[in-house]
Design brief:
This protein has 9 helices and 11 strands. It is of the alpha/beta class. The protein folds into 3 domains: 86 residues, Orthogonal Bundle (Arc Repressor Mutant, subunit A); 90 residues, 3-Layer(aba) Sandwich (D-Maltodextrin-Binding Protein, domain 2); 106 residues, Periplasmic binding protein-like II (D-Maltodextrin-Binding Protein, domain 2, 3-Layer(aba) Sandwich). The longest helix is centred in the N-terminal third of the chain and has 31 residues.
Length: 294
């Protein structure tokens, strides 16, 4: 059964006349009659009574007419919805990213972007782990992703926006808060507010690798995903923490940020997107982000 068969049946059922129905459909009478016969054969039921002078609906045909009209209406609505969505998507930009980009870089980029695309709709999807972004891009659930590690394959490309150091966050009351820099050995006896590995793998590894190198075990008092909450815990004296340097923008009063040594402890920020299939709006957004980060 196909849509054209349903359209033919509805036309004949409403006109109750094969010639008028064929004119309405732009189809020859033999072709129309053939489609109706094929539909009846597929359904295993007669839908129309035919004589040389008259066409009328059988009981089965009368009931099927209501269903056929509903099906055709639903299909028409679905097509209309798809067209509307496709047109709307041309002006939509879905952005996912790690908290630094969402909090610091993205607002500046959006201010510039709205000057060129004031009618564009930007949807923000905050995802803490960079590992999920690649699949989101491939599945077309996001258009642009800010990630911590480079992504380069047949579908996705990425560009390094910047890199920044890791700092040790301490309460001002901690004697180490006045240090010029701190190493793993310097903080080995400190209680630490850490991160779950699945949510903050880079910071988690920076902490644990440092302790492995000195043959010690970090004293983790708790693990937190959200950096704002982590900063509050540190300010209250629960422990110290490692964080990217950008947290100075959201740090509460009562905390100090001290560079964490060695200097190779850096955190990168990449802009990732699909290589092809991006709308002009998405392309302009990508260009704006790159310009903003320079």
């Amino acid at each position: 059964m196909d849509i054209r068969q349903l359209e033919c049946f509805v036309a004949v059922a409403e006109e109750l006349h094969f010639r008028r129905a064929s004119v309405r459909l732009g189809l020859s009478q033999p072709a129309l009659s053939e489609r109706i016969s094929a539909l009846e054969h597929e359904l295993g039921a007669r839908l129309l009574f035919r004589t040389t002078r008259q066409v009328s609906l059988t009981q089965a045909g009368s009931e099927f007419l209501q269903d056929a009209k509903r099906i055709l209406t639903d299909i028409e609505k679905s097509i209309s919805n798809v067209v509307h969505t496709a047109e709307s998507d041309l002006h939509n930009v879905r952005v996912s990213g790690v908290d630094e980009a969402i909090s610091i870089l993205l607002p500046k980029a959006l201010l510039k972007f709205r000057k060129t695309d004031p009618n564009a709709h930007v949807q923000i999807l905050e995802i803490s782990s960079s590992g999920h972004h690649s699949q989101e891009l491939i599945s077309h659930r996001t258009d642009v992703a800010f990630v911590r590690t480079a992504i380069e394959d047949e579908f996705i490309t990425s560009k390094l926006l910047h890199r920044q150091p890791i700092v040790v966050v301490l309460a001002n009351s901690n004697p180490l808060s006045n240090s010029k820099s701190l190493s793993t050995s310097d903080i080995s006896d400190q209680p630490i507010v850490g991160y779950p590995k699945h949510a903050r793998p880079i910071l988690h590894e920076a902490l644990w690798s440092g302790f492995r190198q000195i043959g010690a075990q970090p004293n983790i008092v708790c693990e937190i995903i959200d950096k704002s909450t982590l900063l509050q815990f540190v300010a209250q004296g629960l422990g110290i923490a490692l964080a990217p340097a950008w947290v100075k923008n959201i740090a509460p009063s009562g905390v100090s940020l001290v560079p964490f040594k060695p200097c190779e402890n850096l955190i990168d920020l990449f802009l990732a997107h699909r290589k092809t299939g991006n709308s002009k709006t998405v392309k302009r957004f990508i260009k704006t982000v790159k310009m903003t980060s320079n």
